């Protein structure tokens, strides 16, 4: 796992771009996830909630808000993506989707968002 600082923030009533802006104000970005260990770690941070992560789609191309390579994914099935954003399912009441990534409209709000910044 990377040596980065992760923080779950309240995203109630905030869309993807608003939560990315909040992360940027703290010197980071919505989190990128590059392996199963990071996915599991972030899942523990958001236990019981869904959370925006930093993967967005410009057409069919997936990009992380921090500019890192799109080298890992954990989507449930094959996502339908056109200008959409990604959240991680941490709610236990959705057993088929728990711990997977889901694509949704970027203007919606999720319960949490996870920020990631490099250590100082």
From TrEMBL:
Alphabetized InterPro entries for the sequence: C-type_lectin-like, C-type_lectin-like/link_sf, CTDL_fold, Snaclec
Lineage: Eukaryota, Metazoa, Ecdysozoa, Nematoda, Chromadorea
Key word NAD present: no
UniProt feature coiled coil, ranges: none
Organism from which the protein derives: Acrobeloides nanus
The entry's keywords: Disulfide bond
The C-type lectin domain, residue ranges: 14-108
SUPFAM superfamilies in alphabetical order: C-type lectin-like (SSF56436)
Pfam families named in the record: Lectin_C (PF00059)
Database matches in PROSITE patterns: C_TYPE_LECTIN_2 (PS50041)
Record field: transmembrane: none
Protein name as it appears in the record: C-type lectin domain-containing protein
SMART domains referenced in this protein's UniProt entry, alphabetically: CLECT (SM00034)
Gene3D superfamilies: Mannose-Binding Protein A, subunit A (3.10.100.10)
């Amino acid at each position: 796992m990377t040596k980065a600082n992760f923080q779950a923030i309240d995203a109630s009533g905030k869309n993807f771009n608003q939560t990315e802006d909040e992360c940027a104000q703290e010197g980071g970005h919505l989190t990128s996830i590059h392996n199963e260990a990071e996915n599991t770690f972030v899942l523990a941070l958001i236990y019981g909630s869904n959370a925006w992560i930093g993967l967005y789609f410009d057409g069919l191309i997936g990009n992380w808000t921090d500019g890192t390579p799109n080298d890992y994914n954990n989507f449930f099935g094959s996502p339908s993506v056109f200008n959409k954003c990604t959240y991680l399912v941490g709610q236990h009441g959705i057993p088929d989707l728990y711990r997977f990534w889901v694509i949704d409209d970027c203007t919606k709000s999720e319960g949490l968002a996870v920020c990631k910044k490099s250590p100082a």
